[in-house]
Design brief:
By secondary structure, this protein is an alpha+beta fold. It has 2 domains: 4-106, Orthogonal Bundle (Helix Hairpins); 120-423, BirA Bifunctional Protein, domain 2, CATH 3.30.930.10. It is built from 13 helices and 18 strands. It has helices spanning 4-8, 11-20, 24-67, 73-106, 141-147, 153-160, 170-188, 203-209, 234-238, 296-313, 360-365, 390-400, 415-418; strands spanning 124-129, 151-152, 166-167, 193-195, 200-202, 221-222, 227-229, 244-246, 253-262, 281-291, 318-322, 334-342, 347-356, 367-369, 378-379, 381-389, 408-409, 422-423. It has an 8-stranded mixed beta sheet. The protein has a 3-stranded antiparallel beta sheet with strand order 5-7-6. Strands 8-14-15 form a 3-stranded mixed beta sheet. A hairpin with an 8-residue loop joins strand 14 and strand 15 (378-379). The longest helix has 44 residues, at 24-67. The chain is elongated and about 105 Å long. The two termini are 50 Å apart. The mean pLDDT is 95.
Length: 424
């Protein structure tokens, strides 16, 4: 969420940020309305204070007259009228503040200056690792996965509907191995604290990280409880510190956690539906950082490198994209996407988005720290990234490490977790 001062004192920068995102046509009038509401709000506050001062002065004069035995009926009536005006103005103030708050929750973050302007076509490859395997003679993952008894798409659809998958036998063992491997890597090599969080969250948590109110249609809501299945462990991990003051000596706080992720993908009907490319429930290991504003840029680079290390150890060729402003997520100020190449599909597939949110989420969730005793509290900067998501990683493993006999070579780093060097 934006500081109200962005509307009051830096509205041109806010408008330019929306222009860079390609959203000025839709959000320009919204920003104009926010400016109007803030102006009216301040005028109303002033009017309330003036009338309260007048009512207090009138009350004192009423008391003086009564003590002197003088008539005060006119002042009593005046005080009653002032009270009614104050009540009306306070109701108008509450309505204006509620509308202004609602608008601020709907305006996305402003991307950083180094983020390229434009849409998806302006995304920039900043580095790559490994050589993609040629597509010749490589079967798509859904074929080899079903042949090996790893993926059961038909029964997943029977149980829960399209977009849900059953992993069986070696496929189920692979998913469990990936979770342990990634968490062990991030805790032992990268210094994250392992955290196991609830897989349902409340509305305040979803609002704090920016999923609500903007993306309500993509969420799985639990009717009657005002709870939501998590779209990512980012939500519960970030909200661990909602409405809290973090001790500055603790920063940076780096957390890693596993969760299933539930997404309706309401706006992606018919897109990338084969196999595991786009599903409604999937597993993911998430990395979350809380840090100071001064350190967040360096923390972003570190977090991204931590996610890359997973792909390197799994021997999966990948590239790192700096997303353009129009392709950057709602709450993010800067995002790197990690994409692996899947030769059987013939596509680059995103397996991780590593984002710096600056203080955007922290303002929504009220997460602060005090730089030093006696100093004014500041909002932390939050960052997160997948470390990494399972389905497309499994696609990469099944397609990139596929052998002529249809078996799957297991990368050395994963062999201790699967207790084998080949899946067949």
């Amino acid at each position: 969420m934006h500081d109200l001062r962005a509307v009051r004192d830096a509205v041109d920068a806010l408008r330019d940020g929306m222009r860079r995102r390609g959203k000025l046509d839709t959000l320009g009038p919204v920003i104009d309305r926010a400016v109007e509401l803030d102006r009216d709000r301040r005028l109303t506050i002033q009017a309330v204070e003036e009338r309260k001062a007048a009512r207090n002065a009138s009350s004192q004069e009423v008391a003086r007259r009564k003590k002197a035995g003088q008539d005060a009926a006119d002042l009593v009536a005046q005080g009653r009228t002032l009270g009614e005006e104050i009540g009306r103005l306070e109701r108008e103030l509450a309505a204006a503040e509620a509308e202004l708050q609602s608008i601020l929750l709907e305006i996305p973050n402003v991307t950083l200056p180094e983020v390229p302007e434009g849409g998806e076509e302006a995304n920039t490859v900043i580095r790559s690792w490994g050589a993609p395997r040629p597509a010749e003679s490589v079967k798509p993952h859904w074929e080899v996965g079903e042949a090996l008894g790893m993926i059961d798409l038909a029964r997943g659809a029977k149980i829960a509907g399209s977009g849900f998958v059953v992993l069986r036998g070696p496929g189920a063992r692979l998913a469990r191995a990936l979770m342990s491997f990634m968490i062990d890597l991030h805790t032992t090599e990268h210094g994250y604290e392992e955290t196991w969080v609830p897989f349902v969250v409340n509305r305040a948590s979803m609002t704090g990280t920016g999923q609500l109110p903007k993306f309500a249609d993509d969420m799985y809501a639990i009717a009657g409880d005002d709870l939501f299945l998590v779209p990512t462990a980012e939500v519960p991990l970030t909200n661990l510190y909602r409405d809290e003051m973090i001790d500055a000596a603790q920063l940076p706080v780096s957390l890693v956690g596993y969760s299933p992720c539930f997404r309706r993908e309401a706006g992606a009907a018919g897109k990338d539906t084969r196999g595991l490319i786009r599903v409604h429930e999937f597993d993911k290991v998430e990395l979350v950082h809380f840090t100071t504003p001064e350190a967040s840029a360096a923390q972003h680079e570190q977090l991204t490198r931590n996610a890359e290390r997973v792909l390197q150890l799994l021997e999966l060729p990948y590239r790192v994209l700096l997303l353009a402003s129009g392709d950057t997520g709602f709450a993010s100020a800067k995002t790197y996407d990690l994409e692996i190449f899947a030769p059987g599909v013939g596509k680059w597939l995103e397996v991780s988005s590593c984002s710096n949110f600056l203080d955007f989420q922290a303002r929504r969730a009220n997460i602060r720290y005090r730089p030093a005793p006696g100093e004014k509290p500041r909002f932390v900067h939050t960052l997160n990234g997948s470390g990494v998501a399972f389905p497309r990683t499994i696609i990469g493993l099944l397609e990139h490490h596929q052998q002529p006999d249809g078996s799957i070579r297991v990368p050395v780093a994963l062999q201790p977790y699967l207790r084998t060097d080949v899946l067949r």
